[in-house]
Here is the input.
Amino acid sequence: MPDRFEPIELIPGVPADSPMFHVEPPPPAATDVFGDRLGLARRYAAHLVGTGVERGLVGPREAPRVWERHLLNCAVVAELVPDGARLVDVGSGAGLPGIPLALARPDLEVVLVEPLARRVDWLREVVEDLGLPVRVDRGRAEDADVRRRWEGADVVTARAVAPLARLVGWGLPLLRPAGSLLALKGASAPDEVVRDATAVRRVGGSRPRVVRCGVGVVDPPSTVVVVERSPDPRRTARRPARERTRKERT
Ligand SMILES: C[S@@+](CC[C@H](N)C(=O)[O-])C[C@H]1O[C@@H](n2cnc3c(N)ncnc32)[C@H](O)[C@@H]1O
Here is the structure.
C-alpha cells in the first residue's frame, strides 16, 4: 500500500484490509468547501476509489486525484447555485457533480438522473450509506417521464455527458423559465460555446457564457458553461429574427 494513502472509516461488508478503504487525505481546501460534512465527503471519496473502481464506474487511475479532479472540481460549482435551489444532475454516473454539490450545500434539493442500471444501483447504495436526502432516478434526460417528474428545476448540471448543442436539448426542458444549465467542460469550452451558440438559441437558451469556479480552491479552476433558459417560454424554439425577416420578404 503506498505510504501517502491513509485509512479512513470502514464501509460495511468490506474487509478492513481492503485497498477500498484507502483514499488520499483531503487537501486543506476541502475543509472550507465541505465544512462539517468533510467526514461524509471522505466517505464518498472512499466509495469512489473502492466500489466505484471495482464496479467500473471510476477508472483506477482516478484514485490518487479523486479530491481535486472529482470532489472539489464539482463542489466549487456551488458558487453558481442559488440558495435552496432544486437541482437536477443529468448523466450523473458516479454522482458527479450532484453528490459533491449535495454534500457542500445541504440547502439544495438534488436529483441524480442516470440511465444505466448498474450505475443507478451503485448510486442508490452510496446515497443511502451517506444518509443524503438525494433522489436517484433511472432514465434519460430527454425521456418524457423524466421531464414530467423533474421539470421546473432551478438548475440543471452535467459533466462530461454530451456536446453543448445536444445537452441544451435535454437540459433546458427540465428548467423553469430563467433557470440555469451549468455544464462542466474542459479546455475546449470557449470553442464549444462559439460552435454551438446557434443551436442553443434555437431551443430557447441564452448566449452561453464560460465561467471559472473555485479560483484559489482547485487548480485549475473548474470551467463551466452557463446557459439560461429564456424567461419567456413562448420564445423557445423560435427561429432567429433574421431568418424570419428573410422569409417574410419572399
Ligand atoms: C462520461 S459519463 C460522466 C459521468 C459523470 N457526470 C462524471 O462527470 O463523472 C456520462 C454519463 O452520462 C450518462 N448519459 C448518457 N446519455 C444520457 C442521457 N440521454 N440522459 C442522462 N444521462 C445520460 C451515461 O450513462 C454516463 O453515466
Summary: The radius of gyration is 19 Å. The pocket of S-adenosylmethionine is lined by residues 90-94, 96, 113-116, 119, 140-142, 159-161, 170 (CB under 6 Å). DSSP finds nine helices and nine strands in the chain. The first helix runs from residue 29 to 34.
